[in-house]
Amino acid sequence: MKRKIGLLLVALTVSASLVFAQNSVSAYTTLEEPLAKALFEQFTKETGITVNFVRLSGGEAVARMEAEKANPQASIWVGGVGLDHITAKSKGLTTPYKSRAAENTPAQFKDPENYWVGLYVGPLTFVINLDRAKELGLPTPKSWADLLKPEYKGKIRMANPNTSGTAYNVLTTIRYIYNGDENKAFDYLKKLDANIDQYTKSGSAPGKSVAIGEIPIAIGYAHDQVKLKVEGANVAIIPPAEGTGYELASMSLIKGGKDAVNAKKLYDWILSSKEAQKIFTQWYVVLVAKGAEKHPMALSINEIKTVNQDMAWDGDKVNKDRLLKRWNDEIGVNR
Description:
Layout (H helix, E strand, L loop, with lengths): L1 H21 L1 E6 L3 H15 L2 E6 L2 H10 L8 E3 L3 H9 L3 E2 L20 E14 H7 L19 E4 L5 H13 L4 H12 L2 E5 L4 H7 L5 E5 H9 L4 E4 L7 E9 L5 H13 L1 H8 L4 E2 L23 H5 L1 H14 L5
Helix pairs in contact: 2-11, 3-4, 6-7
């Protein structure tokens, strides 16, 4: 009798495990954690599928997937600069998926081979704490060139391009500002380094430090900075006069992911759900899907001057590895 009860308990445990596995999906996300939490909780509410997610910066997500390539621990990667998704594709870390829900996404915002799809765009901008700037007697920088002025020494913060897609986008943007001349671009970046107080792991962290007055100026994406302003920080957001780069936050399925079926359901839902769009809009991002809502406070790349950005070139593994190696050899090594 005891043996039968024991076998029954084992069977029930296995059955429960299978049910749990069928009703969950493991994800990596590079969205801000509160946004990811709201998004995934809404998905669970509508579908009954639990999302077990880990928040990672773009560089960390690619590194984690590469380390786990033989035994993937997640099935979908949501958010993160599109350049990192292109890199992940070139490293063989993601898998194609032709979602019918992607039909509303214009061709220029998705991979032609269906490895990744764009979710929203956001330009690189400067953010300055007006109270701290007044205390320190600092003028508001209007251009990339302004950031090199001696009065900004130790007063600017940005992320590390090894861990942050945002910061890597800064590197590629400066390269475009100098028309592809990498020697001039790195000459600029070395001069900028003299004014950087520290490089953070996450691209949104510098702006948060500006909001609380820890540092007066930061470089990051406009939507992160708009959120700080709406929440009450006395900040100004400045698009650089020479032009700026922008992110195309994207989504990919991870090659060999164990929850492929539910990952596809989450992928489709994010692209098609009006509730999902509303959640994104509340974070001041500009969605690329046709007919999507736009928050009136959101800063669109159509409203500012942008560089002629070639995402395929920027995300190519060879180009990215070379630019990061040079940054590490000439700048990072001294930090």
